[in-house]
C-alpha cells in the first residue's frame, strides 16, 4: 500500500510538472529591425540571424517558449511596441528615440551585447578631426547621437541609406566623409565586400557611443524578468556566442 501510494504521488508530481511546463511556455512575437546588421543581428533570406538570434533561441529553448520574429522598419517597430502589437523588441536601449516612446514606456532587460556606434572612414583619413567631417552617412531611421552638436549646427550633413554596403562604398569613393553605425557590423561588412577589405577603419578619435543592446517590452514585462534571470545564470554560454560570432568586434 505504501509503495503504491508513493508511485501514485510520483505520477501526480510528474503530471503537475508537465502541466506547469504548459503554463509557462508561451508563443512570443519578437519585433526586430528589417535590416542586415550581421554578425550582431539581421534579416537575411527572410530569416532573423546573428548572435542575438542564437542567444534568444537558447533562452526560449531553456524555458520552453516558441519565438516568432517579425521584421519591421525602425519607426514602425516602435509603434508596434507602444501599442502591444509585439511582445518584445530587439534591439533597444533606454537612451534611444525618446520622442517615439508613449506613456510610461517599456521595461528593458539587462545588457545583452555590448557595442560601439562610431564613424568608419578611409584608412588614410584616420587622423581626421570632427571639423574635417562634412558629410556623414547612416542607415535610414537611425540617429547618430554622438554627432548631434555638429548636425544641429549644420557643420555636418546627414545622408541616409538603406544599405550598409552602399554606405561603405560611398565612403570609399569619397561621396561621404564617413559612415556612422555599429563598428562590428561595419568592419564585418567591409571584410566581405569586394574591393573594401582593408581600406576602411573605425576612427576612435571621432565622436562615438559605447552602449549595450537590450530587449524591451510594454506587453510582457514578466518575460523580460524571466530573460534577465536566464541571462544571469548563463554568462558563459552568452559569452561563447558573442565571441564566436564576432558580435562585439571593436569593443575590446
CATH top-level class of the largest domain: Alpha Beta
Order of helices and strands: HEEEEHEHEEEEHEHEHEEHH
CATH superfamily of the largest domain: Periplasmic binding protein-like II
Low-pLDDT residue spans: 1-23
User: Could you describe the largest sheet, including whether it forms a barrel?
Assistant: 10 strands, mixed
> How far apart, in Å, are the first and last alpha carbons?
65 Å
**CATH architectural name of the largest domain:** 3-Layer(aba) Sandwich
- SS field, number of helical segments: 8
Helix content: 25-40%
Strand content: 25-35%
Organism: Paramagnetospirillum magnetotacticum MS-1
Protein name: ABC-type amino acid transport/signal transduction systems periplasmic component/domain
Description of the molecule:
- The structure is a single chain.
- The chain has helices at residues 2-24, 51-63, 74-83, 148-153, 164-172, 183-191, 221-233, 235-245; strands spanning 27-33, 36-37, 41-44, 47-49, 66-72, 88-92, 107-108, 113-122, 135-139, 157-161, 178-182, 200-202, 209-217.
- Strands 1, 5, 6, 7, 8, 9, 10, 11, 12 and 13 form a ten-stranded mixed β-sheet that branches.
- The chain has two domains: 27-113 and 212-245, D-Maltodextrin-Binding Protein, domain 2 (3-Layer(aba) Sandwich), CATH 3.40.190.10; 115-210, Periplasmic binding protein-like II (D-Maltodextrin-Binding Protein, domain 2), CATH 3.40.190.
- The protein is globular, with a radius of gyration of 22 Å.
- The protein is of the alpha/beta class.
- This is ABC-type amino acid transport/signal transduction systems periplasmic component/domain.
Amino acid at each position: 500500500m505504501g509503495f503504491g501510494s508513493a508511485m501514485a504521488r510520483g505520477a501526480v508530481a510528474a503530471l503537475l510538472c508537465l502541466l506547469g511546463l504548459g503554463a509557462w511556455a508561451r508563443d512570443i512575437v519578437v519585433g526586430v529591425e528589417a535590416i542586415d546588421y550581421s554578425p550582431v543581428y539581421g534579416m537575411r533570406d527572410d530569416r532573423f540571424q546573428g548572435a542575438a538570434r542564437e542567444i534568444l533561441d537558447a533562452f526560449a529553448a531553456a524555458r520552453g517558449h516558441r519565438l516568432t520574429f517579425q521584421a519591421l522598419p525602425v519607426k514602425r517597430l516602435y509603434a508596434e511596441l507602444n501599442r502591444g502589437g509585439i511582445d518584445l523588441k530587439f534591439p533597444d536601449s533606454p537612451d534611444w528615440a525618446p520622442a517615439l516612446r508613449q506613456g510610461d514606456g517599456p521595461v528593458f532587460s539587462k545588457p545583452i551585447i555590448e557595442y560601439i556606434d562610431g564613424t568608419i572612414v578611409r584608412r588614410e583619413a584616420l587622423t581626421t578631426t570632427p571639423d574635417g567631417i562634412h558629410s556623414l552617412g547612416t542607415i535610414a531611421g537611425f540617429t547618430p547621437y554622438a554627432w548631434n552638436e555638429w548636425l544641429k549646427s549644420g557643420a555636418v550633413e546627414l545622408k541616409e541609406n538603406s544599405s550598409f554596403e552602399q554606405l561603405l562604398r560611398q565612403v570609399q569613393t569619397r561621396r561621404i566623409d564617413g559612415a556612422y553605425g555599429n563598428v562590428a557590423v561595419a568592419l564585418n561588412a567591409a571584410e566581405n565586400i569586394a574591393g573594401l577589405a582593408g581600406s576602411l577603419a573605425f576612427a576612435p578619435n571621432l565622436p562615438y557611443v559605447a552602449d549595450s543592446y537590450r530587449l524591451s517590452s510594454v506587453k510582457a514585462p514578466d518575460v523580460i524578468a524571466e530573460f534577465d534571470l536566464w541571462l544571469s545564470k548563463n554568462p558563459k554560454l552568452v559569452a561563447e556566442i558573442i565571441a564566436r560570432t564576432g558580435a562585439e568586434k571593436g569593443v575590446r
